[in-house]
Amino acid sequence: MVQNLKCYRVTMRTLGPVFVGSGREIGKKEYVFLSRGKVGIPDIKNLYEEMRRRGIGNLFEDYLLGEDKSSLDKWMAKQKIKVAEIGSAIRYTIDCGDKIIETGKTLQVMECIKDPYGKPYIPGSSLKGMFRTILLGADLLHSPQKYQDVKQELLQSVERKERKTKYLKRDIAELEAVAYRILRKDPKHPKDAVNDVLQGFVVSDSEPLSEEDLVLCQKVDLHTRGKEKAISILRECIKPDTKITFTITVDAKVCPLTEEKILGAVKDFIGSYYKNFSSAFPGIRVPGEKEVFLGGGCGFVTKTVLYPLLGKRLGMETTQKVFKNTGVQDKHKHAYDKEYGASPHTLKCTRYNGKNYQMGRCRIEQLECIGEGFARYR
Hints:
By secondary structure, this protein is an alpha+beta fold. Helices cover 31% and strands 26% of the residues.
């Protein structure tokens, strides 16, 4: 079977810090505070060898494996070792953004995903997930009649209390089935993944970045009334103004997407995001037509399609119910979302170099076809 392929090179520019986590936390025994607002991440093996050379290898091993809860800085101070003396064991350093870290203070540091060579990158799965949400949201905006039955079922389902892992899962799967499971390769099982048109939309991992592209950013919630609340969580993020490059390969026989359709969907989704949500927050400007949100910590609205499906009023009411029925209503005061003018009523932000940034905000600078061809499959 012969299939036509088009390959696109995509270049994105980060407009805010981007976080894609490895699932690992960097503990307080695994980093040290350096001068000029930097944190050093040592190679623990090399650091252990340094401690052995100093004759305190056993003490260091006991510290790492034992119940001593002090930070690495404090433990080293007890041993009368200055941070400057272990420079050769530092694997890489990270700027701390605008977060003033007190030496020894316990903070949760979430690690950025890295390749086998220790270089940060964006996995293709994260990039494709971003596009998958954008494309679905845009289709909901353009063809609402196609989703009427699923919409009504979702509005009924949202009233039920259910575990977070199951809540609305079936309804979202139904939305995706209407949008994507249309190939009819297996008519007996129309909702099976084999019928998904986005199997012909292949997104590569990004090209590797550098450790110098990383910055530690603190989670900051911006309220619709302008108040900011800093959360004691630090993330290893890709800095603003960093170029991210990857490829998209489209099998035109399976997937009907073109450059114009992809960028059109991006424009529609980000327009809905601003109209229905982010315009409620002070100081948030109208986004550009090619802006997207990538990675973790961007917020509920960037990862879901409730607002494109339901519009502002019904979307806000439904989002409140989602929070209530999944157990986060009281803790985060979502019962007051309608009064505050947005649901959720906080925007996920951070500060870097004296400026406020929205987490995960990026701009597609180029989406260029770099090749057409054929691939033969059996």
